[in-house]
Amino acid sequence: MIKGILFDFDGVAVKSMEQHYEAWSKALADKGCSIEKEDFYMLEGQGVKEISNAIGRKFHLNQKDMNELVEKKTFYYNQIMKLEFYPYFFELLDVLKNKKLKLGVVTGGAKSRVADVVKNHFSEYFECLVTVDDVQHGKPYPDPFLKGAEILGLKSDECIVIENAPKGIEAAVKAGMTVIAVKTTLTEKYLDQAHFIVNDFRQVEQTILSLL
To answer: Phi then psi for 128, rounded to 5 degrees?
Structure first.
């Protein structure tokens, strides 16, 4: 029986991936490099350290350059950051709350960036927050989702995960959870590890309700 829903943060709980891509693109441009949007979205779900390592390998950057890249990305992101949400997301949360489901956020983002947003905008909904700072191994390892289930007092097969990124989907599948992928950033061909693929949060709701 499904008792809990675990949500990714960027690209699911908040509409932020375009801003992250813009910030990384500006930081990379300062190094004379560029990255395609789809290539960047494939890295999503990991912590900033893992993303910077992947980008560093791609462009053969040394550690000093990678450290500067992260600093500049953070600077640019803080400049352009504007909090936005996807249509019907809060309505979905209301429906799930009324169904007495336990809800939580599991993210590759840092607690320093995510915690205040969750506290200020989602405190009445989410009972747990797991960030990259709370686990030894982040996505695509299953640890973050297993930690979220543990905090909620649930087993893996009692949880549904809502994700938008391949790394997050991989982590949730490894954790033994049912995964619904929503196409907020990537097309279906990148999300095929998920058990269900939907277009928007109304369809997320329909899929969850069909599984209860």
So the answer is: -150, 155
**The domain 17-80: what is its CATH number?**
1.10.150
Local mean pLDDT, 10-residue blocks, the chain (212 residues): 98 96 94 93 89 91 92 94 96 98 97 95 98 96 98 99 98 99 97 98 99 98
Phi, psi (5° rounding) for residue 62? -85, 175
Amino acid symbol at 50: E
Beta-sheet strands, E only, within 28-114: 102-106
Name residue 182's beta-bridge partners.
Answer: 198
- Helix, coil or strand: residue 163: strand
In the chain, CATH 3.40.50.1000 covers: 4-15+85-211
pTM over 0.90, yes/no: yes
The number of helices, as runs of H, and strands, as runs of E, in the chain is: 9, 6
pLDDT given at position 68: 93
Q: Where in the chain is the domain with CATH 1.10.150?
A: 17-80
Q: d(Cα 29, Cα 125) in Å, to the nearest integer?
A: 39
CATH of domain 4-15+85-211: 3.40.50.1000
| Core vs surface per residue 89-108: b (16+ CB within 10 A) or e | beebbeebeeeebbbbbbbb
pLDDT at res. 45: 87
